[in-house]
Write a structure and sequence with these properties.
single chain, about 200 residues, mainly alpha, Arc Repressor Mutant, subunit A, 2 domains, 9 helices, elongated
């Protein structure tokens, strides 16, 4: 009787939930394969097999392999977003960015090999690079709008559309270098980098 009920409840779940679960399983399969073998070996067939699905499930959720890989990158290497109150000073924002960058390090460490493998793969595949460009451009637009909402543009050391790019480059560089050489990039260096940007205002 219990088995029948659980089977029945599974069948009654909305299709949207099933689609979300399918996407999540495919992204997790892609993540684990990329970490183990790199992007080159994360083919659609192997990803589908790892997820216990067919390649049809992939095409039902993603247009192609590149779209799946970009979605995995966004899920497992999300933007670093600080917690900050509206009306905070730029110095407070930079302190919050340092805190958020340091807090993200453990999660980033687990995903770093996949991230670096993905960057190397992207450099050699123009179609994927074009998708990454589009996603990054959208991320920068969102970041610019967020900056404008949090801090008046006249309090920023440069135009918001430039600052969001600088902050992205700074956080990515600090994270990767910290993971490569933690002895040379302690928390104090990360904090000093953002504090230096705050003083540039």
């Amino acid at each position: 009787m219990t088995e029948d009920r659980s089977e029945e409840s599974r069948r009654r779940q909305p299709k949207g939930d099933k689609r979300d679960r399918t996407r999540a399983a495919l992204l997790e399969a892609a993540r684990s394969l990329i970490r183990e073998k790199g992007y080159e070996h994360a083919t659609l067939e192997v990803i589908a097999e790892r997820a216990g699905m067919t390649t049809g499930a992939i095409y039902g959720n993603f247009r192609n392999r590149d779209e799946l890989l970009v979605a995995a990158a966004l899920r497992y290497w999300p933007a670093i977003v600080p917690r900050i109150r509206t009306g905070a000073s730029f110095a407070e924002l930079m302190q919050a960015m340092a805190d958020a960058t340091i807090a993200a390090l453990p999660e980033r460490e687990a995903a770093a090999v996949g991230r670096l493998s993905g960057l190397a793969y992207t450099l050699r595949h123009e179609g994927l690079r074009a998708q990454v460009l589009d996603v990054t451009r959208q991320s920068y637009q969102f970041g610019e709008e967020w900056l404008r909402a949090v801090i008046p543009p006249e309090e920023l050391p440069m135009p918001p559309e430039q600052l969001v790019v600088v902050l992205h480059i700074l956080t990515e560089g600090l994270v990767i270098q910290r993971l490569l050489t933690p002895e040379l990039v302690p928390d104090a260096v990360i904090r000093a980098a953002f504090a230096g940007l705050a003083k540039a205002r």
